Amino acid sequence: MAIVFTYSCNDSDSFKNVENWVAQARKIAVQKPCTFLVATKSDILQRTVSYEEGENLAAAYGMKFFETSAKEGTNVNELFMSITEDVLNANLIEETGRRLSERQLSESQRKLEPEKKKAPQLLPNWFTKICCAG
Ligand SMILES: Nc1nc2c(ncn2[C@@H]2O[C@H](COP(=O)(O)OP(=O)(O)OP(=O)(O)O)[C@@H](O)[C@H]2O)c(=O)[nH]1
Ligand SMILES: [Mg+2]
Question: I want to staple 43 with a disulfide (CB 3.0 to 4.6 A). Which of 64, 69, 73, 81 is the partner?
Fold first, then answer.
């Protein structure tokens, strides 16, 4: 799962709102998501949120940070590649963990179960009867 939090470089209110979105997301996320902080409209010169402010907030939340521009196409592909990569890796780690714990569980269950297999018979019945009788 991935969650992308966005704000506009020219809208300080949208930047301040990120905190609220993060709080909302924490309430509803069922698993640990891959999280991204994305600034939009990075081409605008009259910006009110600096690159450093965005970068610092992302670091504080442990998110990856991208400044993008839909107008100029800046970092759009990079963002989607990063999301795809992180989600695939997270799925792989989760799947591997699940398989490992399944294997460990079945191994520990096998140890708890009494030995069901009959011990191999080394000597035929007629031989034991004759030799061990009386
Ligand atoms: N300069 C610039 N303008 C953009 C960009 N993306 C969208 N806009 C403009 O922003 C206005 C709103 O467009 P939307 O498609 O709603 O884009 P948005 O990212 O949701 O932006 P807001 O609605 O303004 O928060 C339009 O006038 C778009 O042309 C961008 O990357 N750079
Ligand atoms: Mg819009």
Answer: 69
Q: Which residue has the tokens 């930047």?
A: 15
Tell me the per-residue pLDDT of 55-80, one tens digit each, with 9 for 90 and over: 999 999 999 999 999 999 999 999 99
Ligand 1 neighbour 43 (Cβ under 6 A): yes
The answer to whether residue 84 scores a pLDDT higher than 80 is: yes
**2-101: CATH class:** alpha beta
Site of tokens 């450093």: 52
Q: Where are the domains of the chain?
A: 2-101
Q: How far is the CA of 41 from the centre of ligand 1 (A)?
A: 7
Q: How far apart are the first and last CA of the chain?
A: 75
